[in-house]
Amino acid sequence: MNRQSQSSHNPTGTISESPIEVLDFEHDRYSSLKLIPWWEQEKVAAAKVMVVGAGALGNEVLKNLALLGIGHIFVVDIDTIEASNLTRSVLFRKEDIGRLKAAVAAERVREMNPDVKLAAHNRDVVMDIGLGVFRRIDVVIGCVDNVEARVFMNNACWRVMKPWINGGIEEMQGIVEVFVPPDGACYECTMTEIDYQEMNRRRPCGLPFDDIALGKVPTTPTISSIIAGIQVQEALKLIHGREVMSGGGISFYGTTNELLRTAYSRSEECPVHSSPTAIVPIDRKVSSTTFGQLLQEASGQLGEEARIELDFDLVVGLSCSCGERQKLLGRRNALKRNQVMCSRCGEIMAMDLTSEISRLSDELLDKTLSQAGIAPFDIVTIKGSNAQLRFEFTGDEAEMLNYL
Ligand SMILES: [Zn+2]
Ligand SMILES: [Zn+2]
């Protein structure tokens, strides 16, 4: 059956002047979407969407993106599939138990719709996804269950001026929030003391729990599909350039079926909304560039005083009250408890931290950026005496944006 799109939606019944696309319902899988007056399948096909988390919410979001024919999806998750995921993950099967969530989700999306290309990464979004990835995405959809990852996504999106859509679920209630830099409130503007406590609870003294299972949030597949559905609808509006509830949230309470819309107020003290500086792409990889080489490269534009400013605490050594000292290099929030335990007396050792590297940082100049925990395709800020630049490690692009 063929139908004509534009004129059938003209409320006056007159024939539209705009070009008429003949829809082919038998052969074109997107033909019924094209009946929506504002729908532009070309924009959907050209869109690049990042999905952070391939759990209950992520599965529903990915399923929707697959059905819609979103052209490119970047999916990141560090977990493997467990039996308990099978009650709320439409993309996973019993045989998938033990396999990586991101990889399996990507496989199933390709099966659902071969038009969709995916890059699937078994990584921790907070540590291992460089800002260069965020910069090449149109919309980020957050499907995580913890404040730390949300704070990271919010910062990353603000730094490269990309919109993101947060989702959260618990039992029969959930929330969707849309943040569109540079205007309006950001996620951190909405954070309460309790949110910060929750973030620190996961990492006492900045260290993650090793073996203690954190309480899992009880959820149903029904609330996942409701919240994921709203998230993807908001993404579709952004992709089409339509109005969204920027800096606002929708809470849905399933017990009473109440829906509450909230417009957040922007906090002028919020540290996230700093104005972005120029990005300079350099054809280098974080795994083969040393801090010395990077400072050398930057000195041409920023002078000999150039210093690298990390956006995390870098551990450069450990010292114990018993007198023991150990060499160690890495991000503070990536360290495990057993790495900072004194081999002599068993106490937790004090960490020597830095977040700035200059020509005077002798011990670090021959270390590569990845040895210090900088993510591939990341953007690194370098300050001179009166200017600053952000260098993007574009040499990592092919490794990270491996859409298949
Ligand atoms: Zn803010
Ligand atoms: Zn000791």
Task: Describe the fold and architecture.
It is a single chain. The chain is of the alpha/beta class and about 400 residues long. The protein folds into two domains: about 40-275, NAD(P)-binding Rossmann-like Domain (Rossmann fold, 3-Layer(aba) Sandwich), CATH 3.40.50; about 280-400, Structural Genomics Hypothetical 15.5 Kd Protein In mrcA-pckA Intergenic Region, Chain A (Roll), CATH 3.10.290. Helices cover about 25% and strands about 25% of the residues. The chain contains eleven helices and 16 strands. The chain has helices spanning about 5-10, 40-45, 55-70, 100-110, 125-130, 130-135, 145-160, 195-200, 220-240, 290-300, 395-400, and strands at about 1-5, 20-25, 50, 70-75, 115-120, 140, 165-170, 175-180, 250-255, 260-265, 280, 305-320, 325-330, 350-355, 380-385, 390-395. The protein has an eight-stranded mixed sheet, sandwiched between helices. Strands 11, 12, 13, 14, 15 and 16 form a six-stranded mixed sheet that branches. A two-stranded antiparallel ribbon has the order 1-2. Strand 4, helix 4 and strand 5 form a beta-alpha-beta unit. Helix 3 runs parallel beside helix 4 and helix 3 (about 55-70) crosses helix 9. The longest helix has 19 residues, at about 220-240. It is globular. The two termini are about 35 Å apart. About 35% of the residues are buried. Mean pLDDT is about 90; it is low at about 1-10 and about 210-215. The structure holds zinc ion (2 copies). The site of one zinc ion (ZN) has 7 residues, from loops. One zinc ion binds near residues 320, 342, 345 and 347.
